[in-house]
TrEMBL record:
Acyltransferase listed as a keyword: yes
Provenance organism: Phenylobacterium kunshanense
Family note: Belongs to the L/F-transferase family.
Entry-linked PANTHER family: LEUCYL/PHENYLALANYL-TRNA--PROTEIN TRANSFERASE, LEUCYL_PHENYLALANYL-TRNA--PROTEIN TRANSFERASE
Gene: aat
GO cellular component term of the entry, any: cytoplasm
Keywords: Acyltransferase, Cytoplasm, Transferase
Protein's name according to its UniProt entry: Leucyl/phenylalanyl-tRNA--protein transferase
Subcellular location: Cytoplasm
Domain of life: Bacteria
Reaction(s) the record says it catalyses: N-terminal L-lysyl-[protein] + L-leucyl-tRNA(Leu) = N-terminal L-leucyl-L-lysyl-[protein] + tRNA(Leu) + H(+); L-phenylalanyl-tRNA(Phe) + an N-terminal L-alpha-aminoacyl-[protein] = an N-terminal L-phenylalanyl-L-alpha-aminoacyl-[protein] + tRNA(Phe); N-terminal L-arginyl-[protein] + L-leucyl-tRNA(Leu) = N-terminal L-leucyl-L-arginyl-[protein] + tRNA(Leu) + H(+)
Pfam short name (any one): Leu_Phe_trans
Amino acid sequence: MHGFDARDLLDCYARGVFPMADAREDASVFLIDPERRGVIPLDRFHVSRRLARTVRGDPFEVRTDTAFHEVVLACAASGPGRTETWINRPIERLYVRLHELGHAHSVECWQGGELVGGLYGVSLRGAFFGESMFSRRRDASKVALVHLVARLVAGGYRLLDAQFMTEHLAQFGAEEIPRAEYHRRLAWALKAEGDFYGLGDSDPLALGAGAGDASVETAGAATLAGGRSSIFGAAGSAAGGALTAGAAGAAEATLGPGALALQLITQAS
């Protein structure tokens, strides 16, 4: 894809297509628009009781956009049961450039000064396109997903795109929709202006939390079809009822980041 740059990639996302590669060492990149897309509606995002307890306990320091390239590299690394990944070096460079342009973001889980899990994706107006995730501690990528959804709810996003449906996504309320329905939802989302930092400069979700030692070491990330590691899906309705920046600041006085994230998600339901 000689001459294809980050702005061309943004145009592709606006048309509902995204890049993939057959292997990390394969320099070829191709674009796909699946017949069916996996989706997680933002207003019906499901958090199990066990995961909610973990999120409230703030076992990780959750940060945003402090180690974007590290997250991409961790997602691109091979692991148990996943010898190849779809993130080759041309795709890696494109996402790093999108991050520099303010259109790609990471949500990171840190523990003891170590990056132990996280995710990244692309932001375009009212749509967020989830790309990949990784986890080196139990529940790290799931906690990152909860914090991402809370951030999207607060920022007025309308669509969270996961590309493919998996059993892993189903636990969060994911559903699968036809291509035509996906494009309808995408067009609706692109009419909105999502704000990834919609909680304001004193963003309580960006402050992180104390990192406990309760997590159990696990390897790898959720695996999608064709070895693509991801966590995401699409959302079909606006995230109404989100806390304003002022209300979020007041809530921060009594709630930790995890509890605040869960409150934001509950208000959108």
